[in-house]
Design brief:
Helix content of chain B: 40-55%
Bound molecules: iron/sulfur cluster
Function (chain A): This molybdenum-iron protein is part of the nitrogenase complex that catalyzes the key enzymatic reactions in nitrogen fixation.
Strand order of the largest sheet of chain B: 12-11-10-13-14
Helix content of chain A: 40-55%
Strand content of chain B: 5-15%
Number of strands of chain B: 14
CATH architecture of the largest domain in chain B: 3-Layer(aba) Sandwich
Enzyme class (chain A): oxidoreductase
Number of domains of chain B: 3
Strand content of chain A: 5-15%
InterPro entries (chain A): Nase/OxRdtase_comp1 (IPR000510), Nase_comp1_asu (IPR010143), Nase_comp1_CS (IPR000318), Nase_Mo-Fe_asu (IPR005972)
Largest sheet of chain A: 6 strands, mixed
Distance between the termini of chain B: 33 Å
Oligomer: heterodimer
Number of helices of chain B: 17
Structural class of chain A: alpha/beta
Keywords (chain A): ATP-binding, Iron, Iron-sulfur, Metal-binding, Molybdenum, Nitrogen fixation, Nucleotide-binding, Oxidoreductase
Radius of gyration of chain B: 23 Å
Subunit structure (chain A): Tetramer of two alpha and two beta chains. Forms complex with the iron protein (nitrogenase component 2).
CATH architecture of the domain at 223-348 and 391-407 and 416-435 in chain A: 3-Layer(aba) Sandwich
Number of helices of chain A: 22
Chain lengths: 547, 459
């Protein structure tokens, strides 16, 4: 039997916990959920299999969002100088208006920044009945006349797909008409795919098809990389850029935090791709490698040690002693401040437990930060990951292509005749690999988690509440929808999608911010006020003197 | 500048909405449904809408918002969502055990034409609705109206529960409209003071302003019960507060069950509250107690004391029609000047009503309530004719900062402030609070801007 690895006062084993979570479900639901709840055995040579990226069960209150949210919200949302028009009724555009806390810095006062704007065709019933293409065309024209942006992107919402508006044709027509404005569209209707992950894929494909490779004029620099899967929530991207700059590494393009049209267009000029969020973008890294010859490595800037490790990884790829030394200098310079805060906080966080149920990579990355605080992650899982995010990339070839995945276009990519340029020779790559640098590699979450931890895919509200009741973690991390029900149970909840109000948490300064934030959350006095004195001691054992 | 691309010169737009002053129907239906006791709202469509609606309501109310979804994928979108909904109803009653499920559609299920009454009928026949449990519903296509329409449609869904036994129960139905939990509580308090026995629906007080106690209740104590909703058919009459949010439900009771109704303005500010209290008194045949007159007098007192700071100050507003109408009346009644008003919620009567309320002013207000009546337009109007104060939801904060105008947050959604769940802005007490907010905004601004020699210690 799996040993209990939870809190001191929990006597339940992981298996019993799993049973408890499933007990109330109708049999069909229980069978399905059982495959998505896994007790981590962390076996030496094989990782247990988990079911992921499958449909949400109707009626089960899910944490997931939709394809449109992944496409417009996550991937294109942080791009500042593209006018993003939602084609559909007003809601979708409204809800994705500034709600993800993507920060941007438009530098010059006259630089384009459309992130504070919400553009929508606000379809009305006559557009649904007679088709919305005319209105879309007019909306694109109006946006062009008003702003003259470099790019206009169009996003389809549920009804658009159903009524069959050809948004791509409209976009192509307008692009040809304008000549100086790149217009393209995304078929990211909410019902496509089983989660927002499908939307990431659709967004990335279109950016790759319509934008990457258009501008050969990248930024100058000796060590030039792209950062993939970093969305600058709460300013994370700023902190990573600060560190890279300090090391002398040039970031050509971030996909897509604080990003611009030109950055995407010239991203093919980089010499290395560093992948942060594996889920949202791993296929782009592959495509950039195949088409332009840029190798990729997985990095993680969440956690001070992880950030240091990632910097060393980047340095060892370029292999120049100058960079290697500079990276060590930077780490040496940054770490004392981080350690000082960690030491200050640790006595108050050591031994505490956390649960993390977030998007595609954060449920993994943030475990590093908790480790640095001496905290244990007793349960974790993703909202919309695929099996490779849990088990590592070696499972990719065996992933089943089901009807839902078939909806999402897979781009056929081949080396670009003009632009393909291997960044390293085969020998160089082999040498790097034998020195320990792994390319195209990601082991996933499971091997990093402790034996006996409970890994759950697509956690829902019912299970979340049960888990918290049974295991009473000291902190729970998820999204806004989960925040208050968890806190009602007396457990502090930190949003890891949009960070509540804080950040940055990436890099060295981010680690300091996070240590302080977690200290505050798990040690706030408020959690001691849940019961009034008369509720804690209801029996009347004595009377006041004046009686 | 946050909105650096907004030009001064007005351009006609016919197709592009920029920074909308409305959102879509289902979120209104979801909010209304939370005002039914033991109710789990259910969104019949793909799960993204539900996630968005829950997130936005959570951010506004700072409370857990639970709701189910039919989780459509491509298959359901093509073949119809009946199977998903049946399965969802079954799962929901088994796992969460609500008293009521309130189903609303999204633009997806509306576009494919799912027939809710038919599916729910089937659910009932198939035994998927346990004995003693209920399913109510509303059609809420997002390409018609706005979140306000969705609210109104779900209210009508509640009214459908009412039955008439032929015996009047002496109660008065009150449909409060889309106001805060604290406002609903205040309306109940006022009615109790006048001594009127009421049935209020929806009622989110006690549901969306709950305590932190270490216990999570998916279904808190508050909310109108199904029993009360049934009884609403025997009430002596209905007061519907707000034409857009509440009138449909009230008229439905009137035409189907002969429960007469009066449609009033939402009781924001002095005059609308006066009419509300007066109507309560008349329908229930009560006299208004001294305490109510006392509260009223306090509000009049504050208006007279602070008049110099309000007098002829210009205000720009964005929001929902029922709120805007009442607020416009309140502002003009204290001699402020509502100058620019937008509402994304359409409705022919809106503009006329605002014109009527502002007829005595020495200028014509800018007022618009259609698709391009958005915050972009409002901003352009402000650039051309600046104002002293902004009132509306959180999304006005960018304009407030760019143009350096104080903002009173009011309406939906308020994502960046608290208090709206707990302190009412309706009724006389609410009027005091509104004035306090307006005054603080104007005076903070004055304290910041006054030259040193003119910097005042006393009001
Ligand atoms: S798809 Fe329709 S119902 Fe859903 S969020 Fe968008 S507008 Fe609202
Ligand atoms: S961690 Fe999740 S929410 Fe965040 S970008 Fe990655 S996939 Fe998206």
């Amino acid at each position: 039997m799996t040993p209990a690895m939870f809190n001191n006062d929990t006597t339940m084993t992981a298996a019993e916990i799993k049973e408890e979570l499933l007990k109330k479900y109708p049999p069909k639901v229980a069978r399905k959920r059982a495959k998505q709840i896994m007790i981590n055995e962390a076996l030496e040579n094989e990782t247990p299999e988990i079911t992921a990226n499958v449909r949400t069960i109707p009626g089960i209150i899910t944490m997931r969002g939709c394809t449109y949210a992944g496409c417009k919200g996550v991937i294109m949302g942080p791009t500042r100088d593209i006018v993003n028009i939602t084609h559909g009724p007003i809601g979708c555009g409204f809800y994705s208006w500034l709600t993800r806390r993507n920060q941007t810095d438009a530098y010059a006062p006259d630089a384009a920044n459309y992130m504070t704007y919400c553009f929508s065709t606000d379809m009305q019933d006559k557009d649904i009945i007679f088709g919305g293409e005319k209105k879309l065309e007019a909306a694109i024209q109006e946006a062009y006349d008003l702003f003259h942006p470099k790019g206009i992107c169009v996003f389809a919402t549920c009804p658009v797909g159903l009524i069959g508006d050809d948004i791509h044709a409209v976009a192509a027509k307008m692009k040809a008409k304008f000549g100086d404005c790149n217009v393209f569209a995304f078929s990211c209707e909410g019902y496509k795919g089983v989660s927002q992950s499908a939307g990431h894929h659709i967004a990335n494909n279109q950016v790759f098809k319509h934008l990457v490779g258009l501008d050969d004029q990248g930024k100058p620099g000796k060590y030039r990389i792209n950062l993939l899967g970093e969305y600058n929530i709460g300013g994370d991207g700023f902190e990573i850029d600060r560190i890279l700059n300090k090391c002398g590494v040039t970031n050509i393009a971030t996909f897509s935090g604080n990003s611009t049209y030109d950055q995407f267009a010239s991203s093919h000029t980089a010499d290395l791709n560093a992948v942060m969020c594996h889920r949202s973008i791993n296929y782009v890294a592959d495509m950039l490698e195949t088409k332009y010859g840029i190798p990729w490595v997985k990095v993680n800037f969440i956690g001070a040690n992880a950030a240091a490790k990632s910097l060393r990884k980047i340095a060892s790829y370029f292999g120049d002693q100058e960079l290697i030394d500079r990276v060590e200098e930077v780490i040496a310079e940054e770490m004392p401040a981080v350690r000082a805060v960690a030491e200050e906080v640790r006595p108050r966080t050591e031994g505490k437990t956390a649960m993390l149920f977030v998007g595609g990579s954060r449920a993994h990355h943030y475990q590093e930060l908790f480790k640095e605080l001496g905290m244990k992650t007793i349960s974790a899982g993703y909202e919309f990951a695929h099996r490779d995010d849990y088990e590592g990339r070696q499972v990719i070839p065996e992933l089943k292509v089901d009807a839902d995945s078939r909806n999402i276009e897979e781009l056929e990519v081949s080396p670009d005749e003009r632009l393909f340029r291997p960044r390293k020779s085969q020998e160089e790559l082999r040498a790097l690999e034998s020195s320990g640098l792994k390319f195209k590699d990601y082991d996933g979450l499971i091997p990093d988690m402790e034996r006996g931890a409970v890994v759950i895919d697509d956690l829902n509200q019912y299970e979340a509440e049960k888990l918290v009741e049974l295991l009473k973690p000291d902190i729970f991390c998820a999204g806004i929808k989960e925040k208050f029900s968890i806190q009602k149970l007396g457990v502090p909840m930190k949003q890891l999608h949009s960070y509540d109000s804080g950040g940055p948490y990436a890099g060295f300064r981010g680690a300091i911010n996070f240590y302080r934030e977690i200290d505050r959350l798990v040690n706030s006095r408020v959690w001691g006020y849940l019961k009034a004195p008369w509720q804690e001691n209801p029996e009347l054992s004595a009377t006041y003197v004046w009686e | 500048m946050l909105l650096r691309h907004t030009p001064d010169n007005l351009v006609e737009r016919g197709a592009l909405t920029i920074n909308p002053a409305k959102t879509c129907q289902p979120i209104g239906a979801m909010y209304a449904a939370l005002g039914v006791h033991g109710c789990l709202p259910h969104s019949h469509g793909s799960q993204g809408c539900c996630a968005y609606h829950r997130s936005t309501l959570t951010r506004h109310y700072k409370e857990p918002i639970s709701a189910g979804t039919s989780s459509f994928t491509e298959g359901a979108s093509v073949f119809g969502g009946q199977a998903n909904l049946l399965q969802a109803i079954d799962n929901i009653f088994t796992v969460y055990e609500p008293e009521v499920i309130a189903v609303h559609t999204t633009c997806l299920s509306e576009t494919i034409g799912d027939d809710l009454p038919q599916i729910l009928d089937k659910a009932d026949k198939d035994g998927k609705i346990p004995k003693g449990k209920h399913v109510i519903y509303a059609n809420t296509p997002s390409y018609v109206g706005s979140h306000v329409t969705g609210f109104s449609n779900m209210v009508k869904g509640m009214a459908r529960v009412a039955v008439s036994t032929g015996h009047k129960n002496g109660k008065v139905n009150i449909i409060p409209g889309w106001v805060e939990p604290a406002d609903m509580e205040e309306i109940k308090r006022l009615a109790a003071m006048v001594g009127v026995d009421i049935i209020m629906f929806p009622d989110t007080s006690g549901v969306l302003n709950g305590p932190l106690s270490g216990e999570y209740k998916m279904f808190p104590e508050g909310g109108v019960t199904i029993k009360q909703l049934r009884e609403a058919g025997d009430s002596i009459g209905t007061l519907a507060l707000g034409e857009w949010c509440s009138a449909d439900g009230a008229r439905f009771l009137d035409t189907t069950l002969k429960v007469p109704c009066r449609v009033l303005d939402m009781p924001f500010g002095l005059r609308a509250t006066d009419r509300f209290v007066d109507a309560l008194r008349i329908v229930a045949g009560r006299s208004v107690p001294e305490e109510v007159a006392h509260e009223r007098g306090q509000l009049v007192d504050m208006i007279s004391d602070m008049h110099q700071y309000f007098y002829h100050k210009k205000v720009a507003l964005a929001g929902d029609p029922d709120q805007l109408i009442a607020m416009t009346e309140f502002l003009t009644s204290i001699d402020m000047w509502p100058t620019h008003i937008v509402s994304g919620t359409p409705g022919k009567a809106f503009e006329a009503r605002i014109r009527e309320l502002t007829a005595g002013l020495p200028y014509a207000v800018n007022v618009k309530c259609d698709q391009t009546a958005d915050m972009f337009l409002l901003h352009q109007w402000i650039k051309n004719d600046p104002v002293d104060l902004l009132m509306g939801n959180t999304y006005l904060k960018h304009i407030a900062r760019d143009e350096d105008i104080p903002l009173v947050r009011w309406g939906f959604p308020i994502l960046d402030r608290v208090g709206h769940q707990y302190f009412p802005t309706v009724g006389y007490k609410g009027g005091l609070r509104l004035l306090e907010k307006i005054l603080s905004a104007l005076l903070d601004r004055k304290d910041r801007d006054d030259q040193e020699h003119a910097f005042e210690l006393v009001l």
